[in-house]
Amino acid sequence: MRVTKVAALCLLVSGTGAGAVQADDNVPAGVSGFPPGYFLPCAKAPKAAVLVVPAPFNRFMRVLCTRAGHALAPLPGFRWSFTNGSDGWLTAINPKTPQPAPEDYFTRLATAPLSVAEVAAFRARLKTVVKNPAILTADVMRLQVDTSTADHKQEYLMIGHAPGGQVTGAWGMECYNDCNPMEASPWAFTIFAVKPG
Question: pTM (2 decimals)?
Fold first, then answer.
């Protein structure tokens, strides 16, 4: 997926390198390259924190708890490749706040079904920055996200299917104002399976 403009503020959380040591029990499955103590036990999150991703989004993402705040991240065995060439996650931090903190968490993760008219309008906006027909014809899902940092945004997933129902491609996009205008949407990514070995 190609987006013509990418916001300057990076909301991605990435590892410190494959050589980093992991020596604690809080490291989630399928994650590597982070220093000891980076991940926190989600069981100790504030009571208001939403830690469960609702269906059908839970087939593509989960919540991780870190010293830089909570984040939506791919499931074990997958990675999110962003348009700037990095792999990363979508965090609960607010771009208007200068410093991420463990106290940054999600207060709402809610599936927000789209009407036929809303899907058509989203695809029309998407067509201004994307030319791949597989993305433009994929099923569109929306997750409403609120955070403890007073941020409100939407996560869109576009899921391609073969005639038999198998998933043929998965793409995501984080948006403010329901991706209107599309050029202002800061993060677009492709979901890839991690190749073994």
Answer: 0.83
